[in-house]
Amino acid sequence: MLILAIDTSSATATTALMENGSLLTEYIQNSGKTHSQRLMLMIDEMLKACGKKPEDIDLYACAAGPGSFTGLRIGASAVKAMAQVFDKPIAAVPTLDALAYNLYHFEGLVCPMLDAQRGAVYSALYKWENNKLIKLEDYRVIDAKELTDQLSALDQKVAILGDGVEIAVKHIPSDSNISLAPAGHLQPRAASCAAIAQLLLEQGKLESCYSFKPVYIRKSQAEVEYEKKHGLSTRLMELKDIDAVWEIEKLSFRTPWSRESFVEEIKASDRTRYVVAEMGDTVVGYGGMWLIVDEAHITNIAVHPDYRGQKIGKKIVEAMIAAAKGEGITSLTLEVRMSNTPAINLYKELDFKEVAIRKGYYSDTGEDALIMWKK
């Protein structure tokens, strides 16, 4: 099994070849050249140095985010192109997981951090337990000073690493429990990315060139400006929205709900929550869920065909998650068609997990449903 791994999530570009669990070679470039200038040359040089050909690669491993928006896109584009040409799978490796893996068996907590601009960092907290890297919290964007204050309050040793260290280090007190990782382990390493890819392979958690996409956690500045310009917002659905929502429903599903069904759902406000997305004064999408004690079941989500491809669906799901938290909900579940890869990837990006398959769930086609949960 020959794995080609790349990580372009930060200013450092790194590539590695791993064969049957052994590292053949690793290249690290951190001298100011852009990833677009150097990445493919690094891969070509590395393959030649090891006497390998592109067609010899069995699995592509790519740091999937969070990190630099431009860097992640360059890495994803390169991997998706190669995977498509040679019809090989992709292992989407979370960048923070790979960074934490640099400190194999560190006796304490590991806190990787990547520069998220404007004094913030992408971060998570990990520990090694029984030879496994355990993630203790979700990936997040947090102010660097706030993060160091939280870490300083812990009663354990904490090692920090990644390019976010440059932002955080000035906030660390001299007598702190926080220490920097050694220089050779401070920045992303493709070897760590390849090691995690091997684990994902063993777990059967691989992507195709069509399903793989970077995970950004937060919106790019371009997306923020787009929403400001077009006035994209979300709010709870009202009865006045029914006609617009029903039109979206009919345009989105083979067997749409009736208008009366939506009226009844809105009236049953003690057990339902529905959200609409608006572009200016136009309803462009909606989502709904049923509240069952401390769980919520997402029933349907749809975006008007004229407005798709603008991440409106993601904004709707995020609004539903926020509404669920406000109701004291501790977990969410949903069913999605096995063929609906874009929706599945969206839910994965928002930390929904695949838990089961419901055979023949959809009566219109007999297609199976994938059941997903989020805690």
Can you describe this structure in just a few lines?
The chain is an alpha+beta fold.
Characterization of the model:
The chain is built from twelve helices and 19 strands. The chain has 375 residues and is an alpha+beta fold. The strands form three sheets. Strands 6, 7, 8, 9, 10, 11 and 12 form a seven-stranded mixed β-sheet that branches. A seven-stranded mixed β-sheet has the order 13-14-15-16-17-19-18. A five-stranded mixed β-sheet has the order 3-2-1-4-5, sandwiched between helices. A hairpin with a 4-residue loop joins strand 6 and strand 7 (120-123). It folds into three domains: 2-93 and 188-202, Nucleotidyltransferase, domain 5 (2-Layer Sandwich); 103-185, ATPase, nucleotide binding domain (Nucleotidyltransferase, domain 5), CATH 3.30.420.40; 221-329, Aminopeptidase, CATH 3.40.630.30. Helix content is 33%, strand content 31%. The two termini are 35 Å apart. Helix 1 packs across helix 2 (69-86) and helix 3 packs across helix 7. The chain has helices at residues 35-49, 69-86, 95-101, 144-152, 165-168, 183-186, 190-202, 221-230, 242-252, 259-267, 312-326, 341-349; strands at residues 2-7, 13-19, 22-29, 59-65, 90-94, 109-115, 120-123, 126-129, 132-135, 140-143, 158-161, 178-180, 232-236, 272-279, 282-292, 295-303, 331-337, 353-358, 369-374.
